[in-house]
Amino acid sequence: MLKLGLILNYRNYQQTILCCHNLIKAGVDQVTIVDNASPNDSVQQLHAALDPYEQVSILTTKSNLGYAQGNNVGLRAIESKFGLADDHILLVVNPDSLLDSKNVEQVTNFCLSHQDAGTVTVLQRGNQKTAWHNLTKKRALLYNSRIFSKLAHRFGKEEATPYHVNQAQAKSIKVDVNSGAFFAIRQTVFSKVGYFDSATFLYYEEQALTFKLQAQGYQNYLLLTSSYVHKGQGSTQLATREVLGYYQQSRRYLLTQYLHAGKLALLFYDWTIKFEDLLTGDHFSGKH
């Protein structure tokens, strides 16, 4: 049995180094780091800090491939190096997530003992949105509107509906979507669904993965028996309109690929974006 960690780095090598040290301390056997063509000296800093560790591998990409495709580079490299096995547990971790040995042990044991398990994670400390319900076609179309989203937010409504958990009642619950900040999954399960859907550059990667796992009969789980620290926004440092643009791109992809939206629905989706861009006087180029 191997516990195989994966970290995708983009610019924030300090957090990646700290995250890697934590994974080793928590009992992860091997850690693979993929630098996603950082425009700073991340690669040099990572090598300087982590080359002494035999259990750490550092890979680089020639261009910024985004979250899904960047992680897939590491996932396929892990498969090539260590082979494909049902008792290999992959731990996908954002650089700004800090785990301990209890987190790693619990998700590993759960994956090994539940053959139906897709992604498995634990609670995020101080954050209610560790797992949420599937996106629906209706919600995707409505929350594409910035006007609707702002009005809904005032009434405490968000596009992603989180699960409300009661730790006193259960040790784990079945969920739709687990946060991509940290999750574990058996390597054979992840490989079976083709790893992440690389058609998205940023955002909704967890939702696309959930749709693929559910189509194969797998169930995602949230464990309520421990928690980890996720600082948030460790790698994504984009202008507000650029962030919104990537959300819109990925959401539209989900509508076509997984939610099977028709032509009228997609026309409405695109019209909403153009209309609100006219109102605000900005637009998104769509370039990575």
Automatic annotation (TrEMBL):
UniProt keyword Secreted present: no
SUPFAM superfamilies, A to Z: Nucleotide-diphospho-sugar transferases (SSF53448)
InterPro entries: Glyco_trans_2-like (IPR001173), Nucleotide-diphossugar_trans (IPR029044)
Alphabetized UniProt keyword annotations: Glycosyltransferase, Transferase
Domain Glycosyltransferase 2-like: from-to ranges: 14-193
Molecular function, one GO term: glycosyltransferase activity
Pathway annotation from the record: Cell wall biogenesis; cell wall polysaccharide biosynthesis
PANTHER family in UniProt: GALACTOFURANOSYLTRANSFERASE GLFT2 (PTHR43179:SF12), RHAMNOSYLTRANSFERASE WBBL (PTHR43179)
Family membership: Belongs to the glycosyltransferase 2 family.
Annotated protein name in UniProt: Glycosyltransferase
